[in-house]
């Protein structure tokens, strides 16, 4: 019981110390407000208001129908340019897409010759260049269907028809995914930096020497920092989900917030220990920042939030299974997007707890060595 009271009172000391640090308070507020809202609303990866031009070498009704089908908000009003201006226009970056309609386009459609429409793309606009040609293909195929003689021929019908239904994001709103992903990433970075800063702040200010002369044990000092900073991250992330994600951005949360908070608590058990462990390696905040940022970037890029884990090399997939953020990303997406139940996500929760226990034991060993070196 005495150790429990020590951990509680030391945690309260951590909260008071955080309250008196305006820089960290600003970092917490910024991380869960502007850092969530701005990417979700501004970093648009979809095709929106893309500049486009049409080279009409046919001057037929079908060609004009294709030009009229390129409408906002996907594309700006199409410009009509001659064939000779394709390369100069693309070299100047004037257009993202140029659609070249060949001569005899409508006549070939009427004769079922299946003419080719050339789509020239500025690949420097990576996000739009990757998605735009697919959009253009669907728009042009749908537009020229009335002019195509062979549309009723059974031999021209596809053997398989793919019909896609979006269950949890029916309008394919990218901001929904970006907002949730930003909260997940910010939880990791804030937990690491808050715990690391708590250790280094005491070392730089000389407070840790005062604590060492008290009847306190290393695990009491360490667990006090873990629970105090974890509760700050939990409170900030819950407010961000309710006020920013659901309120300002309008993302519907399909799953249980209570289940997400439970999984978040388990995840913070490991990631806060990781922050303390990194702080025991370095001696100052600048060194901690140089060490923590690469660790966070690797966790963010390779945990499955940015790209699917299945798309990575098999060796890397196996390595990332020992990183808690991999399981937390899978858990969060299942709960918040797909309304997963505890029976569905217990493997991820168990993996986070097991990894967190291993991290905590190793961090405690390093923390003891650090304190012994100070004494």
In short:
The chain is mostly helical. The chain has helices at 2-19, 22-31, 34-42, 61-68, 86-91, 105-110, 126-144, 174-205, 207-212, 218-249, 257-281, 285-302, 314-320, 324-338, 342-374; strands at 52-56, 79-80, 97-101, 118-121. α4 (61-68) links the parallel β1 and β2.
Description:
Helix 8 (174-205) packs antiparallel against helix 12. This protein has 2 domains: 2-42 and 173-374, no CATH class; 52-156, abc type-2 transporter like fold (3-Layer(aba) Sandwich), CATH 3.40.1710. 65% of the residues lie in helices and 4% in strands. With 375 residues, it is mostly helical. Helix 4 (61-68) links the parallel strand 1 (52-56) and strand 2 (79-80).
Indicate the percent of residues in helices. 55-70%
Described by strand count, sense and barrel closure, the largest sheet is: 4 strands, mixed
Oligomer: single chain
Number of domains: 2
Low-confidence parts: none
Structural class comes to mainly alpha
Q: N-to-C terminal Cα separation, in Å?
A: 26 Å
Mean pLDDT: 84
Order of helices and strands: HHHEHEHEHEHHHHHHHHH
Strand composition percent? under 5%
Overall shape:
elongated
Radius of gyration: 28 Å
Give me the count of strands. 4
Q: Numbering strands along the chain, what is their spatial order in the largest sheet?
A: 2-1-3-4
Tally of individual helices: 15
């Amino acid at each position: 019981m005495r150790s429990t009271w020590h951990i509680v009172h030391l945690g309260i000391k951590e909260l008071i110390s955080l309250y008196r640090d305006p820089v960290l308070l600003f970092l917490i507020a910024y991380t869960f407000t502007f850092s969530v809202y701005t990417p979700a609303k501004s970093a648009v990866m979809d095709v929106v208001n893309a500049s486009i031009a049409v080279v009409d070498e046919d001057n037929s009704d079908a060609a004009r129908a294709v030009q009229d089908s390129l409408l906002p908000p996907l594309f700006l009003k199409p410009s009509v340019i001659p064939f000779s201006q394709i390369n100069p226009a693309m070299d100047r970056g004037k257009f993202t897409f140029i659609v070249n309609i060949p001569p005899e386009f409508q006549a070939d459609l009427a004769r079922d010759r299946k003419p080719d429409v050339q789509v020239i793309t500025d690949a420097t606009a990576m996000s739009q260049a990757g998605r735009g040609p697919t959009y253009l293909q669907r728009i042009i195929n749908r537009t020229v269907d009335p002019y195509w003689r062979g549309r009723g021929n059974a031999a021209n019908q596809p053997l398989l028809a793919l019909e896609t239904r979006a269950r949890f994001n029916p309008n394919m709103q990218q901001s929904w995914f970006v907002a949730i992903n930003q909260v997940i990433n910010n939880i990791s970075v804030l937990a690491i930096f808050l715990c690391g800063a708590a250790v280094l702040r005491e070392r730089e200010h000389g407070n840790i020497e005062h604590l060492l002369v008290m009847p306190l044990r290393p695990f009491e000092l360490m667990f006090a920092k873990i629970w105090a900073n974890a509760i700050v991250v939990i409170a900030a992330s819950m407010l961000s989900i309710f006020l920013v994600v659901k309120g300002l951005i309008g993302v519907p949360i399909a799953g249980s917030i209570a289940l997400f908070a439970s999984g978040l608590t388990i995840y913070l058990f490991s990631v806060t220990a990781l922050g303390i462990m990194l702080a025991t390696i370095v001696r100052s905040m600048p060194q901690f920042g140089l060490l923590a940022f690469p660790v966070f970037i690797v966790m963010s890029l390779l945990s499955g939030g940015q790209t699917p884990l299945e798309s990575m090399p098999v060796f890397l997939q196996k390595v990332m299974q020992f990183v808690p953020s991999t399981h937390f990303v899978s858990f969060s997406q299942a709960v918040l997007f797909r309304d997963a139940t505890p029976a569905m996500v217990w493997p991820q929760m168990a993996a986070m707890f097991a990894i967190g226990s291993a991290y905590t034991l190793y961090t405690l060993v390093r923390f003891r060595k650090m304190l012994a070196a100070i004494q």
